[in-house]
Structures are given as structure tokens and as C-alpha cells.
Amino acid sequence: MKKFWITLAACFGLASTAEVMACTGLLVGKKASVDGSVMISYAADSYTLYGELYHWPAAVWPEGAMLDINEWDTGKHLGQIPQVRQTYSVVGNMNEHQVAITESTFGGRPELVDTTGIMDYGSLIYIALQRSKSAREAIQVMTDLVAKYGYYSSGESFSIADKNEAWIMEMIGKGTGNKGAVWVAIRIPDDCIAAHANQSRIQQIPFDDKGNCMYSPDVVSFAREKGYFSGKDKDFSFAKAYCPYDFSSLRICEARVWSFFNKYNKDMGKYLNFAKGDVNAEPMPLYIKPDRKLSVSDVRDMMRDHYEGTELDMTNDPGAGPFKAPYRFRPLTYKVDGETYTNERPISTQQTGFVIVPQMRSWLPDAIGGVLWFAVDDANTTVFTPIYCSSTDVPECYRQGNGSMMQFSWTSAFWIRNWVANMVYGRYNQMIGDVRKVQSELENGYLEMQPAIDKAASELYQKDQKEAVKFLTWYSTSTADESVARWKKLGEFLIVKYSDGVVRKEKDGKFLDNGYGQGAAPDSPGYSEEFYRAIVKSAGERLKVK
Fold this sequence. Notes:
- It is a single chain.
- The chain has three domains: 3-342; 364-501, no CATH class; 511-543, no CATH class.
- 31% of the residues lie in helices and 21% in strands.
- It contains twelve helices and 26 strands.
- The protein has helices at 121-131, 135-149, 221-226, 238-242, 247-264, 272-276, 296-302, 366-369, 413-426, 428-463, 465-497, 529-543; strands spanning 3-6, 18-21, 23-28, 38-40, 42-45, 55-56, 59-60, 66-70, 77-82, 86-87, 90-91, 94-95, 100-107, 155-161, 166-173, 181-188, 193-196, 213-215, 287-288, 333-336, 339-342, 352-360, 371-376, 385-388, 506-507, 510-511.
- The strands form eight sheets. Strands 3, 4, 5, 17, 19, 22, 23 and 24 form an eight-stranded antiparallel β-sheet that branches.
């Protein structure tokens, strides 16, 4: 979702400098996780998206009620559809039945956008969450809505999961005058992991596997009609027909998927050239079997990835600056002497609105089993706090209306995380250790508490389900708000420790004095030898001491 800029991305269906979308989603089957959870993840990356936690209470609607459809990205009113009789409670991107849905935009062929459609991708997500008790039901709801009311957005990949299974569904419109969309949904095997990152990923479709594959009846015939494909059905590739590769769709999009796969499967080196932008190289599979099972911590930490330890590691070239920062501010491409170059685009990026790891657990009641690990701003420098899917309230720090992209708030998690992150960006390798210490303290503490919270909630649930929900709502809101208070303290600590280019001496978080009540003399670490050599190479004669 949301926008960043890049030059000439044919996959996105745009012909020159193009506004495209930028989100990453990871999926983990229940037999690929350490505890039997189904997990997905999502980074909503945008310079204009304010990080907040959405909430729709469960409701019973009167006969004839209508639902306004407003485009999620812009707020533009698209139309109305009839409301259903009963809707379910939704917090963030998970509902009370442990159904979770996320997305990433691949754009695809521009002529397939239908400007007369009503259903945009964001509305599809949040309406389906309010109307579905399973992933399969969510797929049915989404595709029925598009067929009836038209699809307003460009090409999308959706992660759709519940407590038992995870699916990837890819969808693209048919162009103005052709209502509906072509789409395919494939179930990720329980012992596998998958991912998508702004490039269509579904290749061949197992048409005969009705239990693990769903698709629109015209998914192939429409491609033939438009001249995108002319072979046999068994050779049809959704990605090649509706979102063909180019350099940017691989290096900026598929490379993120490769980084995830490479972390958990030793055989992924053979796809490195593909990830680096070779459109003639063998494509990666939609899903792989990991070498080991993944935990919530693994998925959470993968959302902080900058290709560390690989050939694409962002801290190993001059772009990282003197403090080895794994960030490249926009634009993503630039020109030098007439040649175009690209910055790496990792999973973790500075412009994230919110980032989540929905965890669904089938062995617990839905009210307790679903946990939305929720964070705002840059995944690398934020804190994931647990929000149980039955929560009936939103923490003050995540609440809509508490600040905005145009208004700072000292009680807003989004702005407190941004405040700290923007200090860290300038002196990354010096400051990130202090961030990691507090980050680990909080996140590991939540994970260690989870069994006790689950147990207490389960005991309450047996006696009074409403009291159990109240308890989980209290826990979800209090931990989130407390995390912001702790992060504010971290910011105060960092600005004292690192002010004016020095590092003030401290031990266990307490600053040292000189023995007479004044601050101890700070250290002046300067820069790395590598950076000094770069200066000498560029301006050494002018700066030489004589």
C-alpha cells in the first residue's frame, strides 16, 4: 500500500516516473511455526499513513442499512453497498474469529484498472474482516463483492489467514467497462513459509486441486482475450500474464521475499541473481519449506531486515554513511553521469505507518487465541505490543485522533517512536545498541508473560467470557501505553547521551559524574578509519596537517 517513487517499473504498469505501492507480507503455516500458530505479517509503508490502530465493534444492523465505501488510501467516496445484518469485531487487521488479512500492491497492467468500480483493496480487507469467520469465507466475501460492485484498485496480493491455514490471493481488475476482477488464491502448505512484496508471485495454477486453490473462471481466458497469453492452461502464469517482471520488480520487490527465504532455507543462494534483477533467471517458488520452525520473534525480527549478512547488506557501501545506517532516503533511483542507479529497498524501511504480526492459535478459544502483535513506525526501531483480538478498546497511544501526520502528540506511539528513530538514523551504529536493549526488554517481557496471561484469561473464560475479554482488553491497552512511556524515557536518555556529537559516560542507564557533582568528561569517538580514508581520498591535500 501507499506510495514511493521509482523510475520505469513496467510491472507496476506505469510508463515513466511512477507512483507505486510499498508493503511486505510474510506467511508461516502452522506446522512451520514452533508452537503450531499460523502467522502472517505486514508493514504498511507510506510517508502519508499515520500509524494508529483501527477498531470496529461487533454490531447488528437494521434492515436496509447501507455502508459507505471510501477508498482507504485517500478517503475518496466511491459509493454505497448494502450492509449485512451482523458484523464482527475487528481490531487492526484481525477479527474476533482469528481471521487476519493484509496486502501488498503489485499494480500490474495499467489498462486493467477500472475507475468505475466501487471496491478498493482496503475496503475489501476491512469489510471481509467484519463479515468472515474463516480465511476461505473471507476469500468468498472479497471476490463476491468485486464481482458485484467492481474493483477500483490496481493489482494486489493479499495474505488471508485464520487459526488453521494461510492463503495468498492475487487479484487484478479487467479495465473500465468490465466489472469484476481476475484472481487466484492458493493455500500455503502447513509446513511452509511464503511472502509477497509488491510483485505478483503466483505462477502456475493447480486447477485440479480444489481444496487448496480457488480462482476466477476466466483467469486464463481473459488473459488470452487480451493477448497476454497464448499457451496451454497448464503453462499459464498469473504473474507473467498480469504483472511481467522487470529489473525493479525483482531488485526492489522480489529481493525482499528472497531475503526472508534465504534466512530460513540454505538452498536459496541459487535465486540470488533473480533477486538482484536478472529477469531471465529462474523465478523463486511461491512458498518453501524452512530449515527450522519459526517463532513470533523470528517473524517480528524478519520485519526488521535490511539484507544483513548477504551480498545486498545495506551497511556495507558508502551509502550507509559514517555510522553504517541501513537506510536510503527517497528517491529509490538516481542518476550519475547519465547512468541510473538504485538504492536497495529492504523489508524494514523508515516510512512505515504500522507493522503487525498476527498470530492465530487453534488450541485456544478465539478470544484468547488471536494476538495482533502491533507496532507503529519503522519496524527496526519500534516495539511490538500484544493486542488480543477480542479487545473492545484501543490503547490511548494507538487511538485514532491522537495526533496526525500534521500534528505531533507526546501521548502518540507513532510520534514517540518517530522521535527516537530520527535520532538514531543520524548516528545509527552508536545508538542502535541502546535501542535494542530497551526493545528486547519490552518485547521479551511480553512473550514471557504470554503463557500466564493466556492461562489467567482461559480460567476467567470458563467462568465468564465477558470478564475474560475485559481482562485481555486491559492487558492489551495497558502494555501498549506503558511501552510508550518507557520509549519516551529512552528518547530522553539518548538525547543526553549523544548530544553534540559526543558520547556521555553512563553505567546501567545512569550518567556518571566527575566526582564533584558535574558530568564526567564525554568521549569523542569520531568516525571509522574507512570514513577517514574516504575523506583523505577526496580532500586530503587540503586537510593535511603541515
